[in-house]
Structures are given as structure tokens and as C-alpha cells.
Amino acid sequence: MLRIENVSFGYHKASVLEDINLRIQRREHVAIIGESGCGKSTLLKIIYGLMDLKQGEIFWEDEPVLGPAYNLVPGPPFMKYLSQDFDLMPFITVAENISQYLSVFYPQELKERTSELLDMIGLTEFANRKVNTLSGGQQQRVALARVLAQKPEILLLDEPFSHIDNFLKNRLRRNIFKYLKENGITCIVATHDYQDVLPFADRLVVLKDKKVLAKGSPMEIYKNPKSLYVASLFGEANSISIDILKSYANTKRKIIVYAHEFRVSENSGIPVNVKETYPMGAYYLIQGDTDEGETLFFHSPKELKLDKKVFLNVSLETINQRLQQGPSV
Ligand SMILES: Nc1ncnc2c1ncn2[C@@H]1O[C@H](COP(=O)(O)OP(=O)(O)OP(=O)(O)O)[C@@H](O)[C@H]1O
């Protein structure tokens, strides 16, 4: 188990993380999500031992993970960290970068593992290309294969798919996360992208204002977001008072409604005037204003003309589900 206990950290007195407590089980896959600058990368760097802590401690099993004041070479041997700047050897080939840490005493295994990893990242035909001649996305894929080749017990990934196009990203995500599970590698991934989280993570940690705002099952957090901030990490969302949704309700309590949870009607529901229409492929994202001047985002299967009046509805099931979880903030 990885234990992060009472960790607080700041750069030059500016506090970035406060009182972080997390326990991560062996083989668990945990995603850390939060707005830009909330401290995701800093937390990964702390876990990897790149910073000296004035407050708090990190343990892997019973071993403390210590910072540069205690270790000449940062990073314990059982842990690997893929930073946002890849850390590749630019003047040697893709295959050499991947196999650099494999044992030359087992040449057959070295060849097989290198080719397995090249296949996984879809760069078999680039095996003999020098890394400095690759695109940013290709380099990121090599960096992923390189950390995996080292068979860490814990892998820390910082935005591991940020440079990779959508076409490749989905397949790569499935391959990498399956590989980690099959090989029992504990993984902590910092990301902005909920698509790295919902299909793959066992647990989600949401960071905001230096603290852990929510932690738990990714689908539970998605289905019952405690705040507009949490919901917005998964897509366009609204915080809306129940008496607007259901005129007979005598409470101003607000609940979160995702844009896709509204149904658009021509004749009954919350009246809104269409202000902006954004084509999204499978649907249109619409920005509309209520009669009270509140802005709502919702999905429509068809394009809606500007200034058209439409009516929005939310299912009672959704309202009741959100009401049961307690007030949103
Ligand atoms: N070396 C540094 N010196 C001073 N401040 C830093 C340093 N690195 C990061 N910070 C600051 O610490 C805060 C957290 O940064 P961090 O990179 O951990 O955020 P993040 O959540 O990973 O952001 P992003 O999603 O944009 O990568 C930010 O306000 C950032 O400006």
C-alpha cells in the first residue's frame, strides 16, 4: 500500500497542497483530476520523492519515500514517473530507448519485450528511427513504453496522452491500462481528461484549492457530483434551483444537471431562449437564457435557431437521485 499522510507543500512559501491524505492499494489504478494549476503534477512529484517534505510523509508498504536531501538519484527503484517532458534519449533509436533498461543477459527476452512494447504503442515501423526525428505524440508514446519496460511496481503518469490524437488515443489507453492491470502495476495518473478516468480508474481523487475535494468510485462521483466544479470536470453542467425545474417545489436548493440530462420540448418545461449553438458532431451544445436571465447549457439532437424559445425538462429520477446525495456546493 502507498500511504500519503498529512502532506502539505508549497513552492517558495506559496502553498500548493494542504493536508493530503491518501491510501492506494497495490494494483489499484487511481486517477487524480482537477483544474489546471491545482497541484496534480506537484503531488506526483512529491510521491516520486522529487521534493523534500517539511510536512507529511509518504510510505510504500513500510518504506518511507524520501526526497533529494536523502537520495542522490531521485525516485525509488520500484517506482517510475512519466513527467510531462518525456525524459527520452533523443539521439538513439526508438527501440534503444525502450530496451535501455532491459537486461542484455537475456537477448531473446529483450527482443521480445521491446517488440511487444513497440506493438502496444503502435510504433513497430519506427523502431530504428532516432527519437529526435519523431513528432511530439510519437515521443510521448515512446516515453510510455520506456517506463513500462522498466516493470515498476508503481507507475506515476502525468497527462500521459496529452500529445496524442484522438484516433490513436482510445486504442492506446485501452492497451496501456489493460497491460498495467494484467501486470499488477499500481498506477496513479494525473489528468484533465475524464475519458482517462471513467473507463479505467478504480478510484478518483478530485483536487481543488490545495485540498482533496472528493475521492471514491469514478462513476459514483460522476453520477452524484457534489459541486459544479466536480461536474464540470466531466463535461458541461449547470447548477440549478429545484423550484425552477419543478414549479410546484417550494425549495431554492440547487442541484447539478449535466447538459445532456435536459430534454428539449417545443411546448412545456423551463422556457429558455437560444443564445448560442455549437455543433458537436453527434449533438448540438446549446447555450440558452431563462426568463430570469440564468444561463443554461443543454444538448439538442438538432440545430436550434438563435432566439428560438424552447422548453427544458429533467427526469424526476435525475432530480431525486441528486436530492438524495445532499446539497451541492
Ligand atoms: N517549480 C515551481 N516553482 C514555483 N511554482 C510552481 C512550480 N511548479 C508548479 N508551481 C505552481 O504550483 C501550482 C501547481 O502546479 P502543478 O503543475 O502541480 O499543477 P497541475 O494541476 O499539474 O497543472 P496542469 O494541469 O496545468 O499541469 C501552480 O500554481 C504552479 O504555478
From TrEMBL:
Judging by the UniProt lineage, the source's domain of life is Bacteria
| Keywords for this protein | ATP-binding, Nucleotide-binding, Transport
Instruction: Report the InterPro entries cross-referenced here.
Output: AAA+_ATPase, ABC_SmlMolc_Importer, ABC_transporter-like_ATP-bd, ABC_transporter-like_CS, P-loop_NTPase
This entry's Gene Ontology molecular function terms read: ATP binding; ATP hydrolysis activity
| Gene3D superfamilies linked to this entry | P-loop containing nucleotide triphosphate hydrolases
Give the residue spans that cross the bilayer: none
Q: What Pfam families has UniProt attached to this entry?
A: ABC_tran (PF00005)
SUPFAM superfamilies reported for this sequence: P-loop containing nucleoside triphosphate hydrolases
Q: What is the official name of this protein in its record?
A: ABC transporter ATP-binding protein
